[in-house]
Amino acid sequence: MLYLVSDAAYPVIFSSAGNLTNENQFLHPKRILDSYELISVTKGNLHIQSGGRSYHLTPGQFVLLFPEEYHFGTRPTEGELSFYWTHFYLRDREAAHCEEPEITAFFHETIPPRYMLPETGSLSANSRVNVLFVQLLDLAKRLGSLSAVQCNYAQSTLLLELTNECFFRRHLMQQKESIPLNIADLMEWLQLNYDTTLSVAGIAEKFGYHPSYLTSVFKRYSGYTITEYLNRQRIRVAKNLLISMPGLSLAEISEQIGISDEKYFMRLFKRYEGVTAAAYRKAFPEKRKNRI
Is the Cβ–Cβ distance between 62 and 162 less than 8 Å? Predict the structure, then answer.
């Protein structure tokens, strides 16, 4: 696995971004770019090769294409395809392309802050990456010098969020000496099971704790009650659905994130985000589309 490691003290330089959609038989063009390209697939399968490395991406997976590497589609897609893409440059002249063993040394260092991006990986269901992609696309549609500066910071925020997500699991592994193993497992389990009907009593029984004790311990190490932690995961997924699937009603989104009461979902969303779910959906209507 190849990684990009770069100083994050300054924003990267945004070049362009878009949302490609294709109904069938898309084949990525053959080319060599002088910029980095990040692709996040949301529908269908994308088959691409870069620098002799082949990727077969499904929804929820991403790939980082490195500059000056020849890349091309290896076979046409079958059926619908949709993915977000963005091109960017680094300001850090000492940015490194590292293999897996080398990345460990960087991970232990906290200063300076760094972008640390694997060449490919999977996003969690409650990932904020595609939400940030849509916000970046919205900013890219605006005109003027201020928009260009905003895009640089929006692009950087997206890359930092991807860094955070990719190394979350590694962080939990490092913290296991101070965080009880069952609590770390529970945090990960809640991220995977947010869409089911859950109660604190049922969760406590599953993990072998008394409900009151589990609530106390969980809050001590996570900073949240179990219910709040679970609700935050649900709202993150809801934000993804609101902007990536405009055809879904609020009731359908509520059901998909494990909340049967649509009105409760709407109150919860307003509480955590400060705006209604409908207003959030309308906030980023503009996206650059590539329909091929």
Answer: yes
CA-CA distances (angstroms) from residue 86 to 45, 67, 112? 18, 13, 25
At residue 169, does pLDDT exceed 80? no
How much is the pTM? Answer: 0.72
Distance CA 29, CA 104 (A): 35
Phi-psi region of 208 (alpha: psi -120 to 50; beta: other; left: phi over 0): left
Phi-psi region of 51 (alpha: psi -120 to 50; beta: other; left: phi over 0): left
Determine how many CB atoms are found less than 10 A away from the CB of residue 111. Answer: 6
On the 0-12 / 13-18 / 19+ scale of CB atoms within 10 A, 108 is exposed
Local structure of 122: helix, strand or coil: strand
**Tokens standing for residue 270:** 């307003």
Average pLDDT across the chain, whole number = 86
> What's the CA gap between 221 and 139, in Å, rounded?
37
Q: Which two tokens stand for residue 232?
A: 């935050």
Question: Do 17 and 140 meet the contact criterion of CB atoms below 8 Å apart?
Answer: yes
- Return the H-helix or E-strand segment holding 187: helix 181-192
Task: Note the pLDDT tens digit of each residue in 189-218.
Answer: 888 888 888 899 999 888 888 999 989 988
As given in the structure block, the two tokens for residue 212 are 């009151």
